[in-house]
Automatic annotation (TrEMBL):
<dbReference type="InterPro" id="IPR036282">
    <property type="entry name" value="Glutathione-S-Trfase_C_sf"/>
</dbReference>
<dbReference type="InterPro" id="IPR036249">
    <property type="entry name" value="Thioredoxin-like_sf"/>
</dbReference>
<feature type="domain" description="GST N-terminal">
    <location>
        <begin position="1"/>
        <end position="81"/>
    </location>
</feature>
<dbReference type="InterPro" id="IPR004045">
    <property type="entry name" value="Glutathione_S-Trfase_N"/>
</dbReference>
<keyword id="KW-0808">Transferase</keyword>
<dbReference type="InterPro" id="IPR040079">
    <property type="entry name" value="Glutathione_S-Trfase"/>
</dbReference>
<dbReference type="Pfam" id="PF02798">
    <property type="entry name" value="GST_N"/>
</dbReference>
<dbReference type="InterPro" id="IPR010987">
    <property type="entry name" value="Glutathione-S-Trfase_C-like"/>
</dbReference>
<comment type="similarity">
    <text>Belongs to the GST superfamily.</text>
</comment>
<dbReference type="Pfam" id="PF00043">
    <property type="entry name" value="GST_C"/>
</dbReference>
<protein>
    <submittedName>
        <fullName>Glutathione S-transferase</fullName>
    </submittedName>
</protein>
<dbReference type="InterPro" id="IPR004046">
    <property type="entry name" value="GST_C"/>
</dbReference>
<feature type="domain" description="GST C-terminal">
    <location>
        <begin position="86"/>
        <end position="207"/>
    </location>
</feature>
<dbReference type="GO" id="GO:0016740">
    <property type="term" value="F:transferase activity"/>
</dbReference>
Length: 207
């Protein structure tokens, strides 16, 4: 059984838990992070020197970085529907995962703590406005892709790309500011809501 270290409120932990359930992989989740067991101990840093969650343990094998863990889980379960074996099909899924981890995540770095968390340290109105523009530009890319596929992010079937981007879009939807109309995203989001694991770990009231 896999062990997942990280609190369930973490978007990156939820990404991994959702993947485990889609893949049919049993796991034991333990709460680590702010408000729970510390990630700043020598023991935890021996597992992940970044002192961040999630961390996955599969016997003696330890892995950190949420998207890498999602890939590992899909491969361990031999779920080629979630992550294909064929190079081009796999790359088509993975480039969306990498984009989510870099461009999409970076777009909300200022806006999210400012508007969703009401963090007083993030009170620069210009930075908030610029962040909203950048975040909406990423959303426009997802909207365009879903219009092109008419189904899921990487094509005709549900994959890991939908998991990682689904949580990011959920965060965008729940952060209070004026959102543009995104009919393709809305239709895709409705399809995600038919998946029990998404309701448990994605659209569950957490941002």
């Amino acid at each position: 059984m896999l062990k997942i270290l990280g609190k369930k409120t973490s978007i990156n932990v939820r990404k991994v838990l959702w993947t485990c359930e889609e893949a049919g992989i049993d796991y034991l989740q333990e709460d680590y992070g702010s408000g729970f067991a510390s990630t700043q101990t020598a023991t935890f840093k021996a597992l992940n020197p970044n002192a961040l969650v999630p961390v996955m343990m599969d016997g003696e094998f330890v892995l950190w970085e949420s998207n890498s863990i999602c890939r590992y889980v899909a491969r361990k379960a031999i779920r080629v529907d979630l992550l294909p074996c064929e190079p081009q099909a796999a790359a088509n899924v993975e480039h969306w995962m990498d984009w989510q981890a870099t461009e999409f995540n970076n777009a909300w770095r200022y806006v999210f703590p400012a508007l969703a968390r009401n963090n007083p340290a993030y009170n620069d109105k210009n930075a908030i406005a610029q962040g909203i523009v950048a975040w909406n530009q990423c959303i426009a890319i997802v909207e365009q892709q879903l219009r092109a596929t008419g189904a899921w992010v990487a094509g005709e079937t549900f994959t890991l790309a939908d998991i990682v981007i689904g949580l990011s879009v959920n965060r965008w939807k729940m952060t209070p500011f004026d959102h543009p109309e995104v009919p393709a995203i809305d239709a895709w989001f409705a399809r995600l809501n038919s998946r029990p694991a998404f309701l448990r770990h994605g659209n569950n009231g957490m941002v």
